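Appendix B. Raw example, untouched.
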Amino acid sequence: MFNTEYCTWTTKDLSKMFNVTEETIRRWTRTERIIGSWTSKKDGFVYTGDAIMLFSEQNPKYRLDKKTEEEIRFRSRLYVSRYIELEKEVEKLRREIREIKKIIG
């Protein structure tokens, strides 16, 4: 299932998306046909929207339908906008910390 916190998809998600086995996805990852990030032995690889789109563009047999492409782009945009919001919150907290340090001395 799509990970809303990190905007990634699992090996299982991709196997459903491309109608192949999970082992095929892992083999594509090992041979760098698709780029995945290793998370842990339990969770395995995860894949970004950019990696999925690039794979789909480079492999006509596995082209994604427009609806799936739009969903990946939409979720990726949500992730970026949330990241920007969090950066602003962090900067605000840093300013507050500096002000507290000035008061404390």
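End of appendix B.
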